[in-house]
Fold this protein.
Amino acid sequence: MKAYKELSKEELLTLKEELNKEYEEARAKGLKLDMSRGKPGASQLDMEMDFMNVLNTDTSFKTEEGTDCRNYGLLDGIPEARKLIGDMIGVPADNVIVCGNSSLAVMYDTISRSMVFGVMGSTPWCKLDKVKFLCPVPGYDRHFAITELFGIEMINIPMTESGPDMDMVEKLVSEDAAVKGIWCVPKYSNPQGITYSDETVRRFAALKPAAEDFRIFWDNAYAIHDIYEDRSDSLLEILSECEKAGNPDMVYEFCSTSKVMFPGSGISAVAASQPNLDGIRKTLTIQTIGFDKLNMLRHVRYFNDINGMKAHMMKHAEIVRPKFATVLEILDRELAGLEIGSWLNPNGGYFISFDALPGCAKEIVSLCKEAGVVLTGAGATYPYKKDPKDSNIRLAPTFPALDELTQATELFTLCVKIASVDKFLAEK
Amino acid sequence: MKAYKELSKEELLTLKEELNKEYEEARAKGLKLDMSRGKPGASQLDMEMDFMNVLNTDTSFKTEEGTDCRNYGLLDGIPEARKLIGDMIGVPADNVIVCGNSSLAVMYDTISRSMVFGVMGSTPWCKLDKVKFLCPVPGYDRHFAITELFGIEMINIPMTESGPDMDMVEKLVSEDAAVKGIWCVPKYSNPQGITYSDETVRRFAALKPAAEDFRIFWDNAYAIHDIYEDRSDSLLEILSECEKAGNPDMVYEFCSTSKVMFPGSGISAVAASQPNLDGIRKTLTIQTIGFDKLNMLRHVRYFNDINGMKAHMMKHAEIVRPKFATVLEILDRELAGLEIGSWLNPNGGYFISFDALPGCAKEIVSLCKEAGVVLTGAGATYPYKKDPKDSNIRLAPTFPALDELTQATELFTLCVKIASVDKFLAEK
């Protein structure tokens, strides 16, 4: 394959004609495909339908300690669910509060609480002139939407192969007391699938923040979401690292079973030091009487323990793996050598991150949309939806069925080619 | 029975001695009973265990419109759950957003959102010097805890037999732009079991608030929670009344199935005008991807429609009815004619409200506690936990089994007598 940048204007024009023809043919098919969100596919959900039979009229509804899960109570969640979730992210049950169906809602609440009531006795953030958050980019659009909603200024931090640029993080956190937090997806990051290296985690734990109420927002969304049996990433446990480094209260960790069990009907959790959890409980006890304990019990009974949960994740992996393989194969087959895009091959998570030539992402997403394939909006992986290079596109391979995914990815690569040819032609 | 106020000092002293003896005997029993919270009893939960079998591997998980309830999506909830909840409170499905397991959390969110983001474009309440809420008293302690947490000044509004003192409500709402809301439990009110009269509801709907962002917080927690088959209260539907009166945006209505199905594993909802719902969606869509649709589906499939739900509530009523009868019978047998307390006999809800002689409530609750019977804290039914008369006590008959309830209520009446004798003696 010849790199596009080597092509003459005439070659580009000929190519453009061919590609346009292909595109019109593709558009005529009237596709209706969605590669936009990290949603499990139907076959993943079909595979776990026995979850629905776990609780029935014949089962006991009491916890091991004897609490009736059908009734009110237990603000922290049932002990066995705290244990299970703790094991999932490698922290003691005592450091976990199990919540409702959405870890996003827990993160929103955490920001909201900090804004209105402060953090462990600090000045409420809404009383400050300026609050800033560091945002490793590309990152998770819904994180950025929360901080934007609350008027928190977001600062881009470039991602490297081993996590966020820690020199920049250390400098900003230690010098600027307005920096109150950083959004992290430390394992199989959204969208790149990068896992923070041990050194990165240790540097996080050893931060010397100018603000006493600075917190790391550690969204461990893909803690056990490996794709392969024979290769997986491992992540240092941040709570204990922070404790070792003398910063026991510096982190809130979030997770959920949304992509372990049925999305939207999972359980979520926040993990932190006892002083942090006490700070959370102070308002949480006024906010709710408690979260859905029957759904916690359902999870505990279904998985039994962390081993059951990990075995279950391998069943997901079997379904997800060929989908990642399909996308990677098509990207490779269609784009290798053209020098019009680069992508990563992660060991886990839900996404493939694609970097198009600068200035092409919006056009690619728009071309795909016109031909019936919905991608995550260009720019969505950056704060304020502004990708300064207009380059990053998040591909989510899990939701479409395999044949649809093939069609969608082929269309995607076609649109990448068209946008790239247009770019080079404009530069000639 | 001779009224205590007629007794001489000697008679009171003799009585005191007898009562103290009885009390010591009761205390020796080492009771451990809880009449503090409006929790359904185990027999109510046992009766509805077939709820757990509704969804299983063989059932369809799609809504009527074809949405897969197992996956992400549908911020407003599934259409059939919106319809069911709408029918429960008498409003169209379009005006309902079905949420998570706790209506308290929805109310907290609504206050929190108003504080931080304002109401339909108004100035955020946290930017104002003063925000006030009207609180009909006695009322629900968890309402008052929310407004207290957010630093909202609470003003007591006396309850009458037909609802809050509307002269006072009208005056304060129309004259003071700092008054932004009022907490209402309009049907089978907590704790009195009073249902607002049609005239009261119409006067609410016709309020002329000084503040454009004034809202009625209409917590219709006991919409279908009748105790009797042959007598029940009915409540005018507030959304349509507000619309008729030219105030379509003046009310947020809240409800849940926490005391219809298993508490803590129910579904909750907010109902309001479209402009209000749009205001809610603006932040809700950032807060969460959606609530637990499988649990919504479980409810819809179990009840089928509002008739199924009402039939189910009659099964609860059959269990609850003898408990209310027991408490009322003992109160009547032990206290009638003594003129040391008054109480109401509601047609629904979860409580019996008891008014002791002024200055006696704290002592009664404390005496009960020492003898092993936990009641709702004295003062809890008032903002800031301050009952100006130290008189109101909320009795919750549903949780204990019938024999325990008998013991607990007998102890309660004994403690009422002791505290009252002490009061008269102190005055002699």
